[in-house]
Amino acid sequence: MTAPLTPPPPPHDQSPNDPWAPPPTSGGDGAEPWYGPEKPAGPGLRTELIEAAVVTVVMALLGGALLGVLWWWLAPHVPLVSDGSAVYFKDTEGEQAVGVDGTFTLLALGVGALSALVVFLLRRRGGVPLVVALMVGGLLGAVLAWRLGVWLGPGTDVAARAEEVGQGVTFSAPLKLAAKGALLAWPFAGLLVHLGLTALFGPRDPEPFESEPGKDGYGVPVV
Questions:
Q1: I want to staple 153 with a disulfide (CB 3.0 to 4.6 A). Which of 23, 54, 108, 175 is the partner?
Q2: Where is the composition biased (Pro residues) (predicted)?
Q3: What does the pLDDT read at residue 147?
Q4: CA–CA separation, 164 vs 173, rounded Å?
Q5: C-alpha radius of gyration, the chain, whole number
Q6: Taking CA 142 as the corner, what is the angle to CA 138 and CA 144, rounded to the nearest 5 degrees?
């Protein structure tokens, strides 16, 4: 006779507190899955492109108009004088011409920082389209401000102006931006300020797994 076969041991029930228990899976009992597909973060590419276009246009028009008026108002005047046959600088050792470029650069830095702050307060999330909009809008605004300041300032026809005022009479030279590199002050200032604000106060990416104290991201006790 052969001995009866021994029945297999019953399956070991996993305790809910067992650290080595497998993670729960989704099922028909309504339990939440251990993990699921990640949802795309952010408003979406189409929305970001629309916001970037709006930022570019608003910065170029409003910011450029503000910078142009301030430059025309605050830039020093370069005095000229005519002897009847030619036009000369009245003060040959003056630094008014350098001050014109310096005034534009400082104002552009301030407007760029202000525009970056406003954009960050309105939309705290960064993104490549928004950064490109800050650069392009700042450059277009700087060009618009330069041309607007020249248009608001004294006439560009120096010979006609000298003939109009007469010989020996001092008059102001037209606004002129000799250092064209000053046009880059606004976009670079806006870019740096916005990146700094985003790094300091922008939203943080969520952790892939939230862990309890004393356990790692998978719920295993940390020794």
A1: 175
A2: 1-25
A3: 96
A4: 14
A5: 34
A6: 115
pLDDT digits (tens, 9 = 90+) for 54-79: 999 999 999 999 999 999 999 998 88
pLDDT of residue 132: 92
Instruction: Put the strands of the sheet holding 87-89 in their side by side order.
Output: 87-89, 79-82, 171-172
Locate tokens 């200032």: which residue? 189
Give the residue ranges of the chain where pLDDT is below 50.
Answer: 27-28, 34-37, 209-210
φ/ψ (deg, to 5) at 50: -65, -45
Single-letter code of the amino acid located at 194:
H
- Helix (H) or strand (E) segment spanning residue 172: strand 171-172
Structure tokens, 138: 């700042």
Cα–Cα separations (whole angstroms), residue 18 to 12, 24, 29? 12, 12, 21
Beta bridge mates, 79? 172
Q: Hey, CA dihedral for 145, 148, 154, 156, is it positive or negative?
A: positive
Residue whose token pair is 């939230």:
210
Give the integer Cα–Cα distance in Å for 45 and 12: 51
Per DSSP, the chain holds a count of helices (H) and strands (E) of 6, 3
